[in-house]
Amino acid sequence: MSSTSKAMDDEAGETRGASALRSSLLYRGLRATVRAAVKLFYGTVEVTGLEHLDSGVPTILACNHPNSIVDPLLLGTFEPRQVAFCARDGLFRIPLFGRVLRSVGAIPIRRRSDHGGATADNADAFAACHDVLLAGGVMAIFPEGKTHGRLRIEPLKTGTARIALGAAAARPGLGIRIVPVGITYLVRHAFRSDVHVAFGPPIHVDQLVDSADSGGAASVLTARIGDALRDLAVHIENAEDERLIAQVTSIVVGIRDAEGLDEGGQSPAERTALVRRVVDAYRWLAELEPERTAELRERLDHYMEEREDLGLGGEKPALQHRGERQRRLKGAARLLFLLAGAPLAAFGLATSLVPYALLRAVMVPLRLSTDRIALFKLLGGTVVFGACYALETVLVASLLGWVPAALFGATLVPAAFFARRYVIETRLHRLQLRSVGVWRDKTRLEALRAERRVIAEQLSELRVRYLAHLEASRQPA
Questions:
Q1: Under DSSP, is residue 260 helix (H, G, I), strand (E, B) or coil?
Q2: Does this model's pTM top 0.85?
Q3: In the chain, what are the domains?
């Protein structure tokens, strides 16, 4: 290729990249809609490390991928520039959705697993990524190469590193940075749960470009990205440990609450940090006292099995209890809330029962994987609740006229949120068909509570030792 044609290709690539940088009207509209939907669906989305984003530097956002389409929706709400998302090419073949992806500058990636294990040709995708970076833009990619329902960082593909190194080699001194992003959903599938989005310190790619072994440089960079993601999100190596860690975290939260810590509840970032400490403490104890660890684990397993048998425990690990961070009412204030709020709660339950039941009925035969439940609730809930609320409003209009119907329609969403709070405050959400019998069997219930107290005492003692170990490890040698 002549120098003239190469220059023309470079100029064309920069033009395509610069075009991708300008936030389109569609992108801005979608981002505003997504922000509103995320704010409605999740209780609190806490973001840390925004100081690591620099709008003047070409950037790759390398993020873990625990929750399907929800992950890129979250990422796009915090980066002011238009983000060029990398997505598997199969999504681009979905009618309408694929057109939207192309309209906002998403880049299709061919995964080997989607094409019969054959070597995937991503030359065009890499070129599109380079165009964005060489123009000073920002792109996002999920190095795990798949979405999954685990509380861990899966082994990373090398594509992110190869894209970064290729762009840096094409334009030395450009200053490309990889900003790792860890997303932790405290209850991945639940409405109004909390989320922590952590942006980590940037990895400067130029430092590795001069390596003579390009394959080695890609491996080194991929390892650094993996280490960074494990430092930002919850990483539990073994799947069988996830429920154990979640249960221990729940008990430790109770211990801290009894000590008067965490007034008003922990923020998503604080809870993520606590879970990470529980994981580290478990690893520390397993190395220090393997026999005691095995005994404690057996006791916890039995406790969780009993909870599940009584209908008190879920099968999906949750790092946060429902309504945990809501301000707790006590005494006269709680009694007044329960009495005065009953009519509004009944109204909210009555108007929301049909769409709630419909949504649940649709979900059962679909057998959604854990990483897709939140997305279905977000999109399906919007459609089902919106349609039912519209029909209810029209029905009221036909009976009473449009003015009362307008007032009725305006109260539906606030009443639904109030009813949810009321159900949580009265603990009615704990009454499931499979758990009705436990309230008759007081002996088993009291035995379970006693067992929890014994386990809490053991964990409290171990917690003191672990914190002392941490303090000693911080002391200079």
A1: coil
A2: yes
A3: 3-232 (3.40.1130.10), 239-325 (no CATH), 331-438 (no CATH)
